[in-house]
Specification:
The complex is a heterodimer of chains A (332) and B (210). Chain A is mostly helical and 332 residues long. Chain A contains 13 helices and no strands. The relative contact order of chain B is 0.05. Classes of the chains: A mainly alpha (332), B mainly alpha (210). The interface between A and B is medium-sized, with 28 and 22 residues.
Amino acid sequence: MEYFNIVFLEVYKILFLLVPVLVSVAMIVWLDRRVWAFVQKRQGPNVVGPFGLLQSLADALKYIFKEIIIPSTSNKVIFILAPIVTMTLALISWAVIPFSATMVLADINVGILYLFAVSSLGVYGIIMGGWASNSKYPFLGAIRSAAQMVSYEVSIGVIIINVLLCVGSLNLNDIVEAQQNLWFIIPLFPMFVIFFISALAETNRPPFDLPEAEAELVAGYQTEYSGMMYAMFWLGEYANILLMCAMGAILFLGGWMSPIEIYPFTLVPGAIWLILKILLLFILFALVKAIVPRYRYDQLMRLGWKVFLPLSLTWVVLTSSYLFYFNLLPTN
Amino acid sequence: MIAHSIFFYTFSIIAVISAIMVTVSKNTVHSVFFLILDFISISCLFIMIGAEFLGMIMLIVYVGAVAVLFLFVVMMLNVAQQKNQWFASEASSKHIPVGLIISTIIFFELIIVIGGWKYKPDLFDINNTTNNFSVSNTHSLGQVLYTDYIHVFQLSGMILLVAMIGAIVLTFRKREGVKKQSYLKQISRERSEGVEVLDVETNKGVKIDD
């Protein structure tokens, strides 16, 4: 009975986290399309519901009622597993995101490593989908995407090391609390820029959406998918984008801290601040999609390996020498 | 405690079964996927004994990077070729004794390690190392790795670096007829070089591509 209670409580907590995340993923798709439309002087989706807010729900309904087509030559088990893997991996990483000092599902010691590990697993959904489809375009898309994600993960890892040097802990709440006086975006601004661009590449967002470059590869690894399975890929992708925004907010923008520690601002709960910061980063993501043309593949690889990796490594050396010289290394 | 042992047995059974499936399954890509499942369940076991840092590093390095490269290589292989059963073929029977010898050696090595650990506990000074539960696993690893074993640690890093450079040197060669873009050239291109305004005469047209 005791176990049952514990399990029940945990399931309740998980639902309380997952349902808002899923709803906000649907909303964020709408926001993405709206921002994109406004930059191009269009209206965007504005018909279904007030301001078109229910557009994503209508899309989801449409996907649910569509037939799922499984190609006869595909590897069926892996073909079906791929969207499930993508979706699951995009959702389980939300377990460690702290919405306030106490509002976190799993306050684990190695939170940032967990986030990094799960995001590095995300590539499997894409490779599995591309390979199992047994068709040329999905396979090319999958190979491109795998190379791209592996390359940009390296620079994201090095950037995380920069932040960790200033914090002295792998716990996400400690990382947020270390920014009490100064958000890391100020001393580590170049790293924030590199993190932002790497996050775009890691989530296959434009201008780095090479895996699904529709001019060359139809729809990349999603070409053979239809109905709900396509929708799961799509949900997983946007949940990953949101997660990357959350990671940026926690690492550089002070997480759930209010920007100014004075009276009216401190009343607002931490979760609201975190959500506002995530939204800010997401609007930047959407703006980039609207204004930047797609990169060529060799340019993408060059940027990852020849520009970002040396730059962020140099910054690690700089940060650590600075902290060491002025005796500022955190000890706990 | 019951929940703990349930989790332990779940993960270890998954690990053992997937390790067997790696060698047994006929499709190479499936083997790699089972290998990934094996890595993941082993990292779960690491986390269960409190070595959360090792577990996460296992996920990041092996699952996130090494297994991706495995998959890359295996997926490039010809799928039709994989259909013939390697086990039953003539060519494989010569390799079986070698494999048996290697696996016996590894088996006895494991027995020696575990036996030594069990019967000579002084060999492994528990008080000195990771048994301090007041600090986290990451801290205690760092304290050992960057003080007592710094030279070994640096040396292993150097070995990995040399291996990486060696792999690059082996595959890097000058190839003829490869088209390459020079970024400086592309950026420094002026409008006057790329665009020409012509008056087109009627019925004559313009010849481009000369």
